[in-house]
What we know:
7-stranded parallel sheet, 11% strand, globular
Amino acid sequence: MVIDSSRLHSSLKEFFGFDTFKADQEQIITHLAGGGNAFVLMPTGGGKSLCYQLPALVMEGTAIVISPLIALMKNQVDAIRGFVSGNDGIAHFLNSSLSRAQIAEVRADLLSGVTKLLYVAPESLTKEENIAMLREIPISFYAVDEAHCISEWGHDFRPEYRKIRSIIDGIQPAPLIALTATATPKVQSDIMKNLRILDAKVFKSSFNRPNLYYEIRDKVEPEKDIIRYIRQNPGKSGIIYCLSRKKVEEIAHLLTINGIKALPYHAGLEAKVRAENQDMFLMEEVQVIVATIAFGMGIDKPDVRFVIHYDIPKSLEGYYQETGRAGRDGGEGVCITYYSYKDIQKLEKFMQGKPVSEQEIGRELLSETVSYAESYQCRRKLLLNYFGEEYPEENCGSCDNCLHPKTRFDGREEMALVIKLIKSLPENFKTDHLACILSGVTNAMIKSYRHDRQQYFGAGKDHSVKFWAAVIHQGLILHLLDKEIESYGLISVTPDGEAFLEKPYQIMLVGDRTYAEGASDPDDDDELPAAAVRGGGGGDEMLLAMLKDLRKDLSRELKLQPWIIFSDPSLEDMSILYPTTYEELRNCQGVGDGKARKYGKDFIELIAMYVEEYEIDRPDDFIVKTVPHKSADKVYIIQSIDRRIDLEDIASAKGMDMDALLGEIEAIVSSGTKLNLDYYIREHLDEEIVEEIYGYFKEEAKSDSVSDAMDALGDDYSEEEVRLVRIKFLCEVAN
């Protein structure tokens, strides 16, 4: 069927209200209407839907649109019915959510020729009654939306999608158009082969979304950071993505109790609740939707102003697709992702036990995500390069790396030292263990393997454990090192690493990771694009100076190091939040109930006086209300310590190693809960060791940093000993 240009333009205006087509839309529609197969690669917001909606409305017959999500179908059908008033039969969807009466209505409209677009889930296509019905009607073409679901290399692989070609072959022949917003060259090839459309004309739009700002933040107190960001952007719609349903519910509840209208969305909710929550977000009755990746595919909300990833996505395709839901109207779109090594380890554990081929694919996709997160290069350049597109500019001016470049150094000597260490060991070890050897830190595991006598022990003692862990991570990114998921993350040297050691060449590395945590200095605002001007940053400098003076006076009076009273981050929070009650003070970073009661009186009195004198309008919306919650593990640990159970027994009962247990205990103590570990310390540590470490924290320490303590105390003490005495000190003095 040939459709002339004037008819296409008049139909575009009639149905969609546009005067002109975007990018390749007109050529795609003309090609499809002429009977040709097409592969369309167009980023979110580029107008993919119109490429099959408009030809469906002007061609004879019914277009079959294969779509993966019920929510997507409902949204698209509602949109089409809105374009063509007075004819609800113009578009239907067919899936498991329909009643028998509704299915009969769909069938009647199809057979009468009223319906121009039928959205179906791939599972619905397998039902014999549906296949029989579709054989009775003229089909204009097939559209496979979200076509990346076909490929095992895609970020949202669905096995049922690989059966589409054989199913439609059994219905009737018609042109086929496959559409996706994200596909690497490998994924594109896989899609076209599976759908048997190697003859298809490929229409590829640029992946660059110049209005989006990309940032990776260190995952330190992300909940508080998220609340602060949303508070500083009132009225702006946003999506927060989490990997687990449990975390979705937790974050949605946390936002709600802090006065932010938010709802959860995940596959565990009833279909009716999911649909209602989605509609409330689309109708702007709620500001934020907190969701797993089940939400957002094809959701036509053009003014989503921010997309936040609480957890790092499993692939760059997923990341690009999800961030692409911001700023679809070309306006502001801020994309913030929280990242930590622990999240990567968690994702790697999920892969264990899966088929080897699936593990290999998942591992490669995750490796690319890690490379992106830890890179110091322009994030826009990295993303576009991943999808096979060159970005010519050196600085995009709209990502954290371009706005805040990281300091780099030639790390060939450091990388060579890591490789030499790994090759010198008879077996492989994890990142943290290798980093401890190089920095000369002893712990129980180092001693048990006698690695404190190893030739490279302390060879890099000028740097911290964190520094060497960062070097090892970058070695993985550069493929000089390899990490085996099935053997719990043990590090080995690759052939490329062997070649590098034989003939080292310049490699530019970054030391400890430092990611932007909020807004830049106010003096730098003119450097930021509109999308990048965001929340966070410094507080009241005059108040901060007064708080530091008060802390200094109190430290002299109590004969304690200033950090023991309140850390610098705690004072900085006070200069932002202006707490004038104990409850408000507890919302400052690092301030538990015990510390607030013990040291807080003078501080809240000073702040109250300052607020009154300078007529400060306190930002009450910055105060984060928390959900009273202690995990079952934490409750068990507290109760077990109260009963003086040996720590090794507690760890064993909870399936933890000692390192993980100490981490849980440290988290409990930092929240303000006092624990008494004297029974365990007396039995396992010499009295003089306890006195020495305790004395260091009381007299010399500038912070509660364990790595600083290890550096100051030397090789005579293990990290475990330092951590245990630090916990004792914090409970007795700081809390």
